[in-house]
């Protein structure tokens, strides 16, 4: 990755967080992998002659993917890919570390997306229940194309079979937080992706 593509925030490469979590992927590793993925997307979408009036629609799945979407959009900008942004909100975890298995759609896209090139932008795919639901939901809107880009792919968690078009980083089985991802709505602001220690989320709330 060239220096020009690297966001310039002067953050130290090693950051210390609360003892309840351990860094798994640093922000710098995320940026390097995302820049590479943006290059691949740019190459693959050349066939569609994307322009301002025929852009790639990034569908940011709130809340978890707000930081990843912001970074991906800017790396795509570096590659000359015109994008527009839409936001969709789906939730299936609540404040638990395990999926409820039931996806609640809390916010739909604002503009019509029929005949548009859509890219669902997710922070993580674990059971894949959310992404499967969103793919079906958006396919029904008859887009010109529909693909998926996911920062963290956790294949060990799959409950439904689903292939991600652009998996950025594959991670092992662990409950992760940071870089947009939460535990009971906390920790989204961490720069890195961290593993939340089991002792922490298995403690009764009164002892946290
Ligand atoms: C998380 C994440 C994905 C989904 C992935 O969302 O952002 O959308 O879970 O898990 P799955 O593959 O097992 O379905 P969550 O329900 O926690 O909502 P949030 O993004 O608002 O935190």
UniProtKB/TrEMBL annotation:
MF GO annotations: hypoxanthine phosphoribosyltransferase activity; magnesium ion binding; nucleotide binding
Any one GO BP annotation for this protein: hypoxanthine metabolic process
GO cellular component, one term: cytosol
Enzyme class: transferase
Pfam family, one: Pribosyltran
Entry annotated with the keyword Cytoplasm: yes
EC number in record: 2.4.2.8
Pathway connected to this protein: Purine metabolism; IMP biosynthesis via salvage pathway; IMP from hypoxanthine: step 1/1
Domain of life: Eukaryota
Cofactor needs: Mg(2+)
Major subcellular site: cytoplasm
Function: Converts guanine to guanosine monophosphate, and hypoxanthine to inosine monophosphate. Transfers the 5-phosphoribosyl group from 5-phosphoribosylpyrophosphate onto the purine. Plays a central role in the generation of purine nucleotides through the purine salvage pathway.
Family note: Belongs to the purine/pyrimidine phosphoribosyltransferase family.
Protein name per Swiss-Prot or TrEMBL: Hypoxanthine phosphoribosyltransferase
Species this protein is from: Leptomonas pyrrhocoris (Firebug parasite)
Lineage of the organism: Eukaryota, Discoba, Euglenozoa, Kinetoplastea, Metakinetoplastina
